[in-house]
Amino acid sequence: MKIQPFTGSFTQQEAISDTAIAAAVDVLRTGRLHRYNTHIDEVSYTAQLEREYADYQQSTYCLACASGGYAMSIALQAAGLEPGETVLTNSFTLAPVPGSIVNAGGLPVFVEITHDLVLDLEDLTEKITSSRARFLLLSHMRGHLVDMDRLMDIVVSNDLILIEDCAHTMGAKWKKQKSGNFGLASCFSTQTYKHLNSGEGGLLTSDDAEFMARAIMLSGSYMLYDRHGAAPARETFNYIRLDTPNCSGRMDNLRAAILRPQLTELETNIKRWNERYRAIEQRLANCDAIRVPVRPPNEYYVGSSIQFLIMGISASSARDFLNANKQLGVELKWFGDDEPVAFTSNHKSWLYINKQSLPKTDAILSGLFDMRIPLTFSLADCEHIAKIIVECAHQK
Fold first, then answer.
1. CA distance 144 to 299
2. Nearest to 78 by CA among 65, 59, 89, 96
3. What is the pLDDT of residues 253-312, one digit of tens each?
4. For residues 185 and 202, is the Cβ–Cβ distance under 8 A?
5. Domains and CATH numbers, the chain
6. Are 228 and 50 in contact (CB under 8 A)?
7. CA dihedral (308, 311, 312, 317) positive or negative
8. Which residues contact 355 (CB under 8 A, 6 or more apart)?
9. Which residues contact 28 (CB under 8 A, 6 or more apart)?
10. Coil, strand or helix: which one is 59?
11. Measured between alpha carbons, how far is 221 from 201 in angstroms, rounded to an integer?
12. I need a surface site. Which of 36, 84, 124, 344 has the fewest CB within 10 A?
């Protein structure tokens, strides 16, 4: 029987709740959108979000930022990155990650990945030695967690400064430890296609008081650091407040107001995402033409997107596969294209970075396909989508 096209939208998110809308309207009615525009003794929405997210993350400090990319950039600066210094990061990532390194004054050096889409720890060890890097900006790209036990052995033995990019792992865990709680700091995104939606936004967490004090000053606190919801003690700022530049980028009250109610629904939504992920994963895994990355038993993931490999596929066949799926209503992204397409790009198109030889990564990306799983999809939708992908894989 001929398979029917899918008619849903891969970019349609669930509506913002009435509670969040009411909070946003309350901010708009006051006119006090700026992060420090409060009455005496009033706690801003931004400060409340910082305290609530720190509690959720089980972190001591939190700074709400204008974007996840901004959070990464000031994290590197607050951690002491020197101009022109090397920062190691994943070769499979999105443009804001190397962009944040360059914006902070650093030089990205890419580490190869495995077929399970995580950092190649052998290549990491070699590049720590060859680059003499002090920093690792670890991108948990598309929600895939590397073996964090092995990684932390490498980090500790080499005295690396670890900053985690958790844009795709908000709520994820390795064993019982939350993603983001392994290194000096973690950076989260609240961009529309992430796990909390404020259009654009980010969160930076840490247990290090001096680091967070520098980050808060960098975010543009105007000596109003007492008005933060999860900040270090006032005395921590005594010298830092005078030697740290203002690079304004703390989140405003409007976005914080939208996010706070969403945070209370996050754990429920993670379960819903994972149900949808598994419905697609199980069908793809039974297709001989498709390889789905292995999720280790110690990983508790958040399946808001899915990736799969078609090994050995040519560039022309990959484009045909994309088009065949598109004709049936399924929007896939392909990371092997030499030309960047919308959100999807790879190291070959980031010409502001020195060219690097990454043969293992290039071979993997050549057959790597990616798909969003919005919560507007039902489980039946996910079954339908998976059938289409498998059908197109058999026809390639």
1. 8
2. 65
3. 999 999 999 999 999 999 999 999 999 999 999 999 999 999 999 999 999 999 999 999
4. no
5. 18-263 (3.40.640.10), 266-395 (3.90.1150.10)
6. yes
7. negative
8. none
9. 254
10. coil
11. 17
12. 84
Sorted by sequence, the CB contacts under 8 Å of residue 131 that are 6+ apart come out as 86, 88, 109
d(CA 247, CA 249): 6
The 10 Å Cβ neighbour count of residue 41 is: 5
Q: Sign of torsion, CA 74 80 85 86?
A: negative
Chain length of the chain: 396
**How do residues 189-228 score in pLDDT, each as one tens digit?**
999 999 999 999 999 999 999 999 999 999 999 999 999 9
- Looking up tokens 């149900």 gives 275
Rounded Cα gap, residues 312 and 323, in angstroms: 18
Long-range pairs, 383-387, Cβ under 8 A, ≥24: 383/279, 383/280, 383/283, 384/4, 384/6, 385/6, 385/280, 385/330, 386/279, 386/280, 386/282, 386/283, 386/284, 387/3, 387/283
